[in-house]
Amino acid sequence: MSELREKLISLKDFMETKIIGQEDLVKKLLITLLADGHALVEGAPGLAKTKAIKTLASCVKAQYNRIQFTPDLLPSDITGSEIYVAATGNFEFRKGPIFANLVLADEINRAPAKVQSALLEAMAERQVSMGGKRYALPELFMVMATQNPIEHEGTYNLPEAQLDRFLMYVKINQPDAAAEKKILRLVRGEDGCANDGAEQAKTFAALEVADILAARKEVLQVHMSEAIEEYLVQLIMATRQPDKYDAKLAGFVQFGASPRATIALDKCAKINAWLNNRDFVTPEDIHAVVYDVLRHRIILTFEAQAEGVTTDDIIATLLRTVPLP
Is 148 strand, coil or helix? Predict the structure, then answer.
């Protein structure tokens, strides 16, 4: 096992002891970070979404900022704005909270479209344009946006085309009874650990930003055979014409996954294999990430929505019908 891989696996194991009952979220955040992407996380309040990314930032010595999205938020509240300085008689650009390594966009669907667009533009272009100048964002830059699935009053849904900018769309559930007990003991401090992310990092040999950048290069060396590659491509093709694989799906999919999904599935499957201490991709690696990569990239017809069919249902059917390599 390489030193970098050992560090990242140790980081995953450490975070799982602090983010109780959300092992899948921890792993998907690390995959997103190593794939140089962004994650949209959907879950009820109190499921440690904020704590997860804050702990991750502390464990990699990265700058962390949190943006609370509200209906009265302005684009400049995210990107920053030009301020007139009387002493010099000039305008100076004051950077906004988007200029950080890890950014939490809390309840992104609370803000109107123009604010969402400002964030998504920065995510896609990795820069902010202001006053005819361009300001580059850090090389290590990841956004974790959250949205609440149980309250829709006063929210603005993200357009499907903008959702495609997120590498992964992760849905998290409530912890089980055993995890709930562990959460109680952790909060009480019975394990001897503090609850603050910065304090937690003191018990972990924090990684440098350079370690993450180096790991990104190493995961590219993971091998994917031609047969596995063909299987991956056929899964994407199946989202565009699912009726060819299952007649029941006819008329359910309006638009299938874009080529961006193919690239994302390739990256995420390789990283999943790498984190499992393998240098080659198996179908199980694709299955481990396919829901998170595709669920926001398949647009359903009105007929499918009327019948209660979800994108996860479509993906599950295709996994059963697309032949394995």
Answer: coil
Q: How far apart are CA 270 and CA 281, in angstroms?
A: 6
Element (H, E) at 129: strand 127-130
What is the tens place of the pLDDT at every residue in 218-273? 999 999 999 999 999 999 999 999 988 888 888 899 999 999 999 999 999 999 99
177 backbone dihedrals φ, ψ, rounded to 5°: -65, -40
CA distance 152 to 52: 24
Residue 141 has a CB neighbour count (10 Å cut-off) of 20
The C-alpha atoms of residue 195 and residue 210 are separated, in whole angstroms, by 26
322, with CB counted inside 10 A (0-12, 13-18, 19+), is: middle
**Residue 121 CB coordination number (10 Å):** 19
Which tokens in the block code for residue 68?
């609370």
DSSP state of 204: S
Neighbours of 197 (CB within 10 A): 19
| Alpha carbons 274 and 33: distance in angstroms, whole number | 14
pTM (two decimals): 0.90
Residue 287's Cβ-count burial label (10 Å; 0-12, 13-18, 19+) is middle
- Name the amino acid, one letter, at 268: C
- For residue 71 the two structure tokens come to 């209906």
Is residue 174 classed exposed, middle or buried when 0-12, 13-18 and 19+ CB atoms within 10 A define those classes?
exposed
CB–CB of 21/180 below 8 Å?
yes
**Nearest CA to 271 among 57, 37, 32?**
32
Domains of the chain plus CATH, in order, are 3-216 (3.40.50.300), 221-321 (1.10.8.80)
Sign of the C-alpha dihedral computed for residues 104, 4, 267 and 138 taken in this order: positive
* Token output for 185: 């003991």
CB 104 within 8 A of CB 96: no
